């Protein structure tokens, strides 16, 4: 009799434990960008997007032909290699890095207070024709960066971050991909090649997935954004640390917010001005005549 009772209690305990385990497994969210992490504040619910275009006003500097004579292989592979710092097609700027810099989702949570899980797919940076493809990339913290060499010559990739560890690594022709991750957010990390001084690219690292690089036609779209009000920044290279312009947008559930930026000459009309000019424009006591 006693034995039987013990058996029943044991079975009941096991059954209750199984129920407890099953209920602790949280369901996956509907959006691919926001898989919950145990113990972290994650977003699930409706999302919207931010889309726009990057204009370049005035006459853009003409791309300069690169002298590749230091490595004859590069000249053979890419005889018309030219600079990519200002690529403009029909007044639209390519390779601008656009991202959510700050802001608050509806409900009051700052975008940076959520934890976002990086995609399992790697971002590929290819050394191809003795330049980096793509010229500008975005990646999440913890997401894999896969660096490949498609050239019949040796490259030496050398990112020069400020917030992440610096490294440089030789990659001969036929070598396997170099795989790296970045632990800290950084906009943007310059990348150079110790073999070919003209090779340059930029990597934007963020803790959330809300970034994009403008395409050849200047367009960009940032998807999966929780409804809220955000500061969106567009960064373009040039000078010591590039130029960044910001504007406020409000994203509605299932809606698309518009964010058009302009760089180049007299480009202050379409967005807020660059960081260095902001105080002069924002302080009312300075006045304007
Ligand atoms: Cu190289």
Walk me through the structure.
It contains three helices and 19 strands. The longest helix is centred in the N-terminal third of the chain and has 23 residues. It is flat. The C terminus is likely disordered. The site of copper (II) ion has 7 residues, from loops.
Brief descriptors of the model:
4-stranded mixed beta sheet, binds copper (II) ion, 289 residues, 5-stranded mixed beta sheet, mainly beta
| Structural class assignment | mainly beta
Order of helices and strands: HEHEEEEEEEEEEEEEEEEEEH
Distinct small molecules? copper (II) ion
Q: Helical region count?
A: 3
Mean pLDDT: 85
Which shape, going by the Cα principal axes?
flat
Cα(first) to Cα(last) distance is: 98 Å
Q: What's the arrangement of strands in the largest beta sheet?
A: 7-13-12-9-10
Largest sheet: 5 strands, mixed
Give the amount of beta strand, in percent.
25-35%
User: Measured on Cα atoms, how large is the radius of gyration?
Assistant: 24 Å
- Low-confidence runs: 18-37, 268-289
| Strands, total number | 19
